[in-house]
Design brief:
single chain; mainly alpha; 3 helices; globular
Length: 88
């Protein structure tokens, strides 16, 4: 029955640059949820496109722990104010 509800899609390989600690948190979360990083990102984006929160309370607690572990102190407010460090 589950297979009958599946939608066929086409995926493409892409090179995406992300802030280092953000990527570590995403990878850690994907691992804890037994998802690929791509599947996690697709889920987050599809929820965001519909104005829905992608995570419940339990997952938000996991994210908070991962943020502490990896020192991720960025917030949504920072998202439009990021600049890359100069190569040195």
């Amino acid at each position: 029955m589950y297979q009958d509800n599946m939608k066929t899609i086409e995926r493409v390989q892409t090179g995406v640059r992300l802030e280092k600690r953000t990527l570590k948190v995403l990878k850690g979360l994907a691992e804890s949820l037994d998802l690929s990083l791509g599947d996690l990102l697709e889920g987050i984006v599809l929820h965001a496109f519909e104005g829905k929160a992608p995570f419940g309370e339990k997952t938000l607690k996991q994210i908070a722990q991962l943020r502490d572990v990896y020192g991720l102190d960025l917030t949504a407010e920072d998202s439009h104010r990021l600049s890359e460090a100069a190569d040195g």
